[in-house]
Structure formats: structure tokens, C-alpha cells
Amino acid sequence: MDILINSLFEHVTASANRPVDRVLWISHDGHKLVVIDMSAEDALPRTVERSEVEAGIDSGDLKVLDNDPYSTLEILPAEIKTKHIACRDKARQLITPIVELPGDGTFIPGERGPVLSKISEETGTSKRMLYLFLRRYWRGGQRWNSLLPRYYNCGAPGKKRRAGETKLGRPRKLV
């Protein structure tokens, strides 16, 4: 079984939600994998043994997925709005020092933490936002386009809006 970076594995025998893991990094000797849970909101990378993953695939507990939910991120630059590119590039600039840590430093909390704190102090960006960008980057297959804004998730497209009897907006303080 060939395990590659960005491979997706579904836990078939797990509970009803059937979590999916993405491979983020493979050690030089190939024995350790760094994976992230794609479904958990606050997931962080964790290290697993390659032999465990291969045993899970052989036993049927893990299933290799062919369809990547983030494959839609492979967009031509001409199709991306300039405003969205600016948002992506700002997020990219913030997390680049973390992503470029040597070896597997990006995935080790002791190495990632101080760099993250320094970025937070220098830029005024909260650690929560930095982790949000990192998780998006990791879940998106370590592609920069995974940092594009997700405005398509906002609102309720196709639903008709109706104003009611009461006036919309914040009430006036002066009468």
C-alpha cells in the first residue's frame, strides 16, 4: 500500500460520523505519519505509526478515499476575485513562518507554539485566528487556496427575504 502526503483515510468501524484523516507529513524513514482529523473543529496534527495505518487498511478498519473534498480549491488564478486573493495572501503571510519550520517542526507543539506566540504579539492577530488559518491550510491539503474566504457558506442562497411590520436595524436612541 502506497501512502502519500494528502492521502485521505476514513475510519469505517468508528462511530456513525466516520471521521476522515489526512496525511500531512511522512518521516524520512517512512515509519511515522502526521495526520489531522478532517471533521473535528479543533483538531491538531497527531503522529501515528505507518504500520498502524497499513494494518487498519488490511483489516478493513480504514478505507482509502479517492475523492478529496478540497479538490475544488484547484482554481485558476483568473477565476479568483482580487479581494479574495488579498484575504488569502494576508492569511498566508501570517502562517508562513510556522509552515516553513524545518522538518516536522510545524506539527510539534513545542516548536510551533513559540513561533505562533511571536506572530500573535507582532501582528495583533489572535492565536485562535492563526490556528483557524493553520487548520484550513492543513485540511485543504496544504494548498494556499484553502485560505480563500468562504463567503459561499454565508447567508441562505435562494431564500426570499421579507421585511416584517417592525423596522429593521438598530433602534434609534433619539426620538
Task: Give a structural overview.
- The chain is of the alpha+beta class and 175 residues long.
- The protein folds into 2 domains: 8-65; 72-150.
- It is 32% helix and 14% strand.
- The protein has a 5-stranded antiparallel sheet with strand order 4-3-2-1-5, covered by helices on one side.
- The longest helix has 18 residues, at 82-99.
- The radius of gyration is 20 Å and the shape is globular.
- The relative contact order is 0.13.
- The mean pLDDT is 89.
Descriptive terms for the model:
175 residues; alpha+beta; 4 helices; 5 strands
Q: How much of the sequence is in beta strands?
A: 5-15%
Largest sheet: 5 strands, antiparallel
Average pLDDT metric: 89
**Tally of discrete structural domains:** 2
Give the overall shape, derived from the CA principal axes: globular
Q: What is the strand arrangement across the widest sheet?
A: 4-3-2-1-5
String of helices and strands: EEEEHEHHH
Number of strands: 5
